[in-house]
Design a protein that fits this description.
Largest sheet: 7 strands, antiparallel
Strand content: 5-15%
Order of helices and strands: HHHHHEEEEEEEHHHHH
Radius of gyration: 30 Å
Number of helices: 10
Length: 394
Amino acid sequence: MQRIQRYIFGECSRAFFGLLLLVVSILLLERLLRIADLVSRSPGNFNEAIFMLANLIPHYAGIGIPAAFFLAVLITVSRISRSGELVAIWGMGKSLFMISKPFMILAILLASALLITSAILQPLSRYQYRSLVNSIAESSIETIFIEGKFVEAENWTVWTENVDRGTGQLDSSFILERQAEGRQRVIVAEAGTLVRDRGTISEIQLENGMGADIRATPELAQRLEFESLKWRPPDALTGFRARGKDVRELTIWELWGPATRAASPANDKIDPLEAMVSIHDQLARFVLILVLPLIAVPFGLSYGRNPPSNAILIGLVALIAIQQLLELAKSLALDGAVPPWAGSWGVMAVVIIFAVALFLRSAITMAQPPLSALPEIRLPRFFAGKDDTGNASS
């Protein structure tokens, strides 16, 4: 890239990462309130809230990348127009095609990042988030062992004197299992360890204890003293279900099997139509990132020192409209009103034609910027920016 292009690329990149951080932070703060409420009403560790927020980042990044990139391009073009740098660049004989090259390079990079995020990271992190929510909201080995408290879960009553969440070490512990026909099994141990397998507690290693079966009658049978005993808790307490309950938990490659009706036993409940629509939707949003600069650059152009204040507002409205049309097209495809490919790609065809026509109009004909003919929105004085002289402008 030329020096001017590197300068524009740097300005746009800084604006993009700043906006993306802002958008993701706002969305995470909103979800943090609900996560804090969930964790506070359960005996789980508050550190789980951090892991839950971390698993939400790919989801919110997928929402924030298109919006942050569109605004970053629009703001960058608007700034170099307002400062007079755009006129100087044109005076050097550079065209709008050359100016837009850095934006297109950044668009290719971000489109690839968005595809990786939506096709791989989002399904995996969504499953992990749901697993964490389940472990907090439902009974699990992590939540039933609480220091100095009797906790009931399913047909079990558990008590422990102390538990170390980091190492899984237990002090004196008591386990009562209620079985059929009034039978009960009691296990008492001086110490124990929560044994993990791939992040999930698979068994409990108990040491120096005693176990017994108690029948409905006062009879005591099968008393057992032990130095070491492995206790495997029931499936209801050991972990979460396997990944792949719906299309949102499957990567784009895993969706291909159900979409082509070559379903495996692991995801045989996935609707082929829903899988195919999800694939087309993800690919269409990948292409959308490549098209956004062709809309944002003309929207940000201004040949005067006071660009229209409605550029960002109209740009946001246009972006939201495109997103809503994609959601509508996805719904129509899921309902069978249109073929799976026609919904998303029909919207993208219209957007591409509009974007290319808008960009070529500004790049070839040098016509007035598309937003220059619209009435300017007058902001309140305390929202007004400042011109180059430092005076407030409305």
